Amino acid sequence: MPMNLPNLLTLSRIVAIPLVILTFFIDPPYGPWAGCVLFALAGFTDWLDGQLARRWHQQSAWGRVLDPIADKLLVATVLFMLVALNRMSAAAIFPALVILAREILVSGLREHLATLSVPLPVSRLAKWKTAIQMIAIGVLLVGDSGPSGLHVRMIGELLLWIAAGLTLVTGYDYLRAGMTHIGDEPVVVKEPKPHGVP
Fold first, then answer.
1. Closest CA relative to residue 141, chosen from 71, 57, 82, 183
2. 20, 122 Cβ separation under 8 angstroms
3. What's the whole-number average pLDDT of the chain?
4. What is the DSSP string of 106-167?
5. Other residues' Cβ atoms within 10 Å of the Cβ of residue 85
6. Which of 52, 62, 152, 183 lies in disulfide reach of 146, CB 3.0 to 4.6 Å?
């Protein structure tokens, strides 16, 4: 894997996962706020590594594979911890499940389309979904340790429901775009024969 800065930033999101998990076991308000800050920094690296890779022409196959894996690991782990430690209401588990199911669906679809050399670019609406989703999770990490009277947990859960709604829309768009290629055969790249071999 090329050890350039964009890829290192992507790896830093994976390294941040156990650190964010650790904050769940630190007493409030320090633990929740530390978790929010670490998660926000990890989310910022997601934006930054893409910007740098494009600007410095350092886009690589490793980066394209590792970037979505790092994002999904981070989001899935934090959502799991929030549910496991009752840091969100029972009703908010539904949008969390919708988000995780969509991520698995799109990942599988992208993997299949990659064998067909068919790109599945990220839509503008999907970028909004990701932004709202990351803000929602950051707010939920603060939760009851936020300023009194602001109902921080309720705000976070509302944003999570909005992200889930956008998740359904964008997931359907990706599925509809990919269904036209579901029955296609994988592209087989033939290696050139050595010189002189018939």
1. 82
2. no
3. 86
4. HHHHHHHHHHTT---PPPHHHHHHHHHHHHHHHHHHHGGGS-TTS-HHHHHHHHHHHHHHHH
5. 10
6. 152
Q: What is the pLDDT of residue 1?
A: 60
Radius of gyration of the chain (CA): 20
Q: Per-residue pLDDT for 155 more than 80? A: yes
Quick check: 136 pLDDT over 90? Answer: yes
d(CA 168, CA 129): 10
The CATH class, in words, for 5-179 is: mainly alpha
C-alpha dihedral over 142, 135, 43, 99, to 10 degrees? 110
Is the distance from CB of 197 to CB of 132 less than 8 angstroms? no
Segments making up each domain of the chain, as ranges? 5-179
Rounded Cα–Cα distance for residues 7 and 50 (Å): 9
Q: How far apart are CA 87 and CA 99, in angstroms?
A: 17
Judged by phi (left if over 0) then psi (alpha if -120 to 50, else beta), residue 57 lies in left
Q: Is the pLDDT reported for residue 141 higher than 90? A: yes
pLDDT tens profile 82-127: 999 999 999 999 999 999 998 888 877 777 676 666 666 778 898 8
* Cα 35 from Cα 15, distance rounded (Å): 14
Residues 25/81, Cβ–Cβ less than 8 Å = no
Q: Predicted confidence band at 164 (pLDDT cuts at 50, 70, 90)? A: very high
